[in-house]
Amino acid sequence: MRFxxxxxxxxxxxxxxxxxxxxxxxxxxxxxxxxxxxxxxSVSVPKLKAALASSSLEQPVICGAFGSGRDLRxxxxxxxxxxxxxSELIEMAHALGAKIVCGPMYSRTGRCGAHTAEERESQxxxxxxxxxxLCRKAxxxxxxxxxxxxxxxxxxxxxxxxxxxxxxxxVGSDALKIHIDTFHMNIEEADSGVAIxxxxxxxxxxxxxxxxxxxxxxxxxxxxxxxxxxxDVGYEGDIVxxxxxxxxxxxxxxxxxxxxxxxxxxxxxxxxxxxxxxSWQQIEQNKAQTI
Length: 291
Fold this sequence. Notes:
Elements: E1 2-6, H1 20-28, E2 32-36, H2 45-53, E3 61-63, H3 76-96, E4 100-103, H4 117-141, E5 144-147, H5 161-171, E6 176-181, H6 182-188, H7 192-198, E7 203-208, H8 223-232, E8 238-241, H9 252-255, H10 265-290
Parallel strand pairs: 1-2, 1-8, 2-3, 3-4, 4-5, 5-6, 6-7, 7-8
């Protein structure tokens, strides 16, 4: 169990210029760094590996960003671009000793609209074909691909854990899991804790994000229910804080952060990590006292 930070907190796209973030996040109290890599060519893997080795954050998580042109349910060129991009992330993860590549890799973020049952079925079939190819590469590299359900305003495709499991069952690969995000679950799930208990075996990665994208614990997420459910199912993966700066143009519309939500990235990181660690420990103690 590690608590970490996603580089979107500071950088719109992790590149070679962002290598100092590794030491900065370590100073903030992170136990891992999640690298939001928008353009793999902008990162020197040997230099990144050396920077990670000089810290205590050696095994990162790789997070994908699926903007325009990357869409497994899109045109042939969009599908090819998405497969090429995720393949690059798999190769990067393998070279760095990472085990997880996460994100909403099934479709372009922001694509929303109504579809008939037949159209939806056709789209799911097309996505599954792309994921089958990617899962074969992930299996060979020892990497898990974690699908992130997004809220209805960011995608019309996979909004809930149930829908993610439907896709996982369709693909049929042990390399395909779920990446849950408390921000999206707070919108789409009837009860986040219950959803975690129901689909626990599929959950490989967790994003901790406030209901308003601001400071954790000063929002409406049921943190006791979420963290308690993760403890109940014996979750041993990572929990990463994800938020975004106002000037992040890469996913500005998707994140929709139009006002200042905290004083600084350092405040968000330090206070958020402290909140998660303290809450996790307190829930453990409370559970122990009731046994």
